[in-house]
C-alpha cells in the first residue's frame, strides 16, 4: 500500500496569485484536473509526480483525425 500523506482539494481562480499556484504545484504528488488551462501548472510538479487529466464525455481534439477521444 502507498502511504497517503494528505489529500487536498484546491480551486485556482483569477484571483489566485502565480506564487500561490507555483507553491501548491511544487508540493503536489498527484495532480487531478479537468481539461483546462489549470494544467499549465503541471511543469512545476516535483519529480515523480503524476497528472490525471479528466476529459468530458465525447470530447475530441480538432485536427486529431479522431485519434484522441475522451472516455
Describe the 3D structure.
There is one protein chain. The chain contains one helix and two strands; from the N terminus they run H-E-E. It has 71 residues and is of the alpha+beta class. The chain has one helix at residues 18-26; strands at 30-34, 50-54. It has a two-stranded parallel ribbon with strand order 1-2.
List the helices and strands and how they pair.
Layout: H1 18-26, E1 30-34, E2 50-54
Parallel strand pairs: 1-2
Task: Give the structure's gist in a few sentences.
The chain is α+β, with helices and mostly antiparallel strands. The chain contains one helix and two strands, in the order αββ.
Q: Calculate Rg over CA atoms.
A: 14 Å
Q: How would you classify the helix and strand content by structural class?
A: alpha+beta
Number of distinct beta strands: 2
Number of helices: 1
In one word, what is the shape? globular
Main beta sheet, described? 2 strands, parallel
Low-confidence stretches: none
Mean pLDDT score: 78
State the main characteristics.
71 residues; alpha+beta; two-stranded parallel sheet; 13% helix; 14% strand
